[in-house]
Amino acid sequence: MIEPGRLSLNQATVKHLSVTSAADLCARHDIAAIGLWREAVADCGVAAAAAAVRNAGLRVSSLCRGGFFTHQEPAARSAAIRDNVAAMEEAAALGTDTLVLVSGGLAAGSKDISLARRMIADAIGELVPAAARAGVRLGIEALHPMFCADRCVISSLGEAIDLAVQFPAAAVGVVVDTYHVWWDARLAAELARAAGRIVGFQLADWILPLPPDVLLGRGHVGDGVIDFGPIAAGVAAAGYTGYVEVEIFSERVWSAPADETAVTVRERVQNLN
Amino acid sequence: MIEPGRLSLNQATVKHLSVTSAADLCARHDIAAIGLWREAVADCGVAAAAAAVRNAGLRVSSLCRGGFFTHQEPAARSAAIRDNVAAMEEAAALGTDTLVLVSGGLAAGSKDISLARRMIADAIGELVPAAARAGVRLGIEALHPMFCADRCVISSLGEAIDLAVQFPAAAVGVVVDTYHVWWDARLAAELARAAGRIVGFQLADWILPLPPDVLLGRGHVGDGVIDFGPIAAGVAAAGYTGYVEVEIFSERVWSAPADETAVTVRERVQNLN
């Protein structure tokens, strides 16, 4: 059961809109919260973005995204840490306690996937004190294994949990995105194990055939092959009661009128219940 | 350590060649074995294909492919069983004891991934007696999760092993393909658990960026991001001493002269040692 007040529109679903326009869209369609992206926030400034969301009567469900921790050069690694600290401060200023992490693929010039994973664990450990200070939780998101090489070597929910439980639950959790984890035979068991650690839940469907750019192979809930009910039930059973974000990267969705997109987003999530 | 006598060229790597031409290519380049595809075998007939390979002084490392077990209609399901029995008989006639399975995606019109997995387990169980009669092992291949919806819901080596161990090792094993499993944080542990069950080992590299058709995103060993050494070591530690097939689906490799491809295949696998 996803109560109407838990629905959030991730801004990536209407990526051509500014923060203000996206916030107004949510308000018009009785969508309670919005997931923001740092690039769009930077376009108007953090304070203006926070004011736009507040004036629209919304909450911010999460900020996307921190991460990209896998660098061989110390300077690049330090820059990533600083950037993630800045992202947590932005999240706090925007009124959300969740920073979504896309942790990074193989380090440039390296084929050592274990090294990349250790770099991520090290970076998260280094960020925990700043997360506690900011009152923001780092949400480790497992990305689909097709993004392992170049975006995120954390490729399954189980792996994200294994990483998160090394740190305090108040500072580090996991984000469950249906598009990235639906295929996993261990998903139900891992969701049970994620109890108390889920800090975000994102919905998008898997559309066939994959488009030429696999980053954009998502669709509205119900337009693809994912059976959302059992995943949503597993997330609920794990005790997650936070916002449910719809986050769709799709040229087709992006080319639709934003109001139409918002209507579809609401209807489809309601129909999950 | 992959001894030179264990190298096999999977015919898909030179897909424009007939069985006879591919067999002659292997003989010219001192490649000990060939992995055959049923479509190409059908083009010349099983007996002629067997003779071509024998006359070239080669062995057949495996036959691709059986599987596609996920059907809701009983007639389609029965047809798949019959087709897989025929495939095992072809494998035996060609002198290989390994039939590679691509088990099937979601059943048409269904989003029930657990149902698809049960259909696969049921079909394999039904085929075990015929496998024993033919002296052929069914090799369950985990396909990369990006193929889960439409080709194979068995998406990780662990899942393939969980399935295989329900049946006698003489009849059912797993095929390890680097392209499909390299991303998996559990790979090393699962390879250890696969001891006695590995019936095939296939090599292809993961090339960035993915091409528009993700089926074709493979490359020669060493051209991509996969660290083959640890995977080969894990396969060896699991006791696998059979053929090592190079199987590359790639427009770029297909458009290269076949002799050049064969040279590269040999060199790259030698350099793994």
What's the short version?
2 copies of one chain form a homodimer. The first copy, chain A, is α/β, with parallel strands linked by helices and 273 residues long.
Report what the structure shows.
- 2 copies of one chain form a homodimer.
- By secondary structure, chain A is α/β, with parallel strands linked by helices.
- In chain A, 44% of the residues lie in helices and 17% in strands.
- Chain A is built from 11 helices and 10 strands.
- In chain A, the strands form 2 sheets. An 8-stranded parallel beta barrel of chain A has the order 1-2-3-4-5-6-7-10, surrounded by 6 helices.
- In chain A, helix 1 links the parallel strand 1 and strand 2.
- In chain A, helix 4 packs parallel to helix 5 and helix 8 packs parallel to helix 9.
- The first copy, chain A, is globular and about 45 Å long.
- Chains A and B meet through helix 6 of A and helix 6 of B.
